[in-house]
Design a protein that fits this description.
The complex is a heterodimer of chains A (about 110) and B (about 110). Chain A has about 110 residues and is an all-beta fold. Chain A is built from no helices and 11 strands. In chain A, the strands form 2 sheets. In chain A, strands 2, 4, 5, 6, 9, 10 and 11 form a 7-stranded mixed β-sheet that branches. Classes of the chains: A mainly beta (about 110), B mainly beta (about 110). At the A-B interface, strand 4, strand 5, strand 9 and strand 10 of A face strand 4, strand 5, strand 9 and strand 10 of B.
């Protein structure tokens, strides 16, 4: 009965590779997000997306792109991975942009 | 710049003590504020959501308050237990950003 689920939980990959992280929510929410938690444990928004609007944090490199096949899924695709991309990535969802948000368990990405 | 600040960064208390975690934010027109708990290596668990029209929200031993005029929220934990040890995060939608997070308070409850 996981509300927001992410796969994989752990991802180790080499620099220069392209990888994707998948996210699915079964809450019927219309808005999904990707957050990055850095080595200092600080959480920052990367993307906010509903069926009408994609809001991109301007500090996110264009190597990162969200892809939403339907309202229940928001995948994160990363091109040309760099060492600095190593972090924990969290997916979340809510109704609209200002209601209670629910988070997945995170994907720990390690770039070597 | 829209910011959320949490103090202290870390807190250690003996079991059974009541404690208060603080959160401040820069936008008095805040829509709501959410408190989360994060255990090491785990995801975020939503604890309480307090709407701008509310002054308090309670769940079990947790009580969150919101004072928009002063830009502050507090999370009160009664009768703390070792199982409460975790990092507590507050977050609020500020400007166009859905949730702006504080850097968290790392709580240790000593048995």
């Amino acid at each position: 009965d996981t509300a927001v689920s992410q796969t994989p939980k752990y991802l180790v990959t080499q620099m220069g590779n392209d990888k994707s992280i998948k996210c699915e929510q079964n809450l019927g929410h219309d808005t999904m997000y990707w957050y990055k938690q850095d080595s200092k444990k600080f959480l920052k928004i990367m993307f906010s997306y509903n069926n009408k609007e994609l809001i991109i944090n301007e500090t996110v490199p264009n190597r990162f792109s969200p892809k939403s096949p339907d309202k229940a899924h928001l995948n994160l695709h990363i091109n040309s991975l760099e060492l600095g991309d190593s972090a924990v990535y969290f997916c979340a969802s809510s109704v609209g942009g200002r209601t209670e948000a629910f988070f997945g368990q995170g994907t720990r990405l390690t770039v070597v | 710049k829209q910011e959320v600040t949490q103090i202290p960064a870390a807190l250690s208390v003996p079991e059974g003590e009541n404690l208060v975690l603080n959160c401040s934010f820069t936008d008095s027109a805040i829509y709501n504020l959410q408190w989360f708990r994060q255990d090491p290596g785990k995801g975020l668990t939503s604890l309480l959501l307090i709407q701008s029209s509310q002054r308090e929200q309670t769940s079990g031993r947790l009580n969150a308050s919101l004072d928009k005029s002063s830009g502050r929220s507090t999370l009160y934990i009664a009768a703390s237990q070792p199982g409460d040890s975790a990092t507590y995060l507050c977050a609020a939608p500020l400007g166009r950003t859905p949730l702006v997070f504080g850097k968290g308070t790392r709580l240790s409850v000593i048995a």
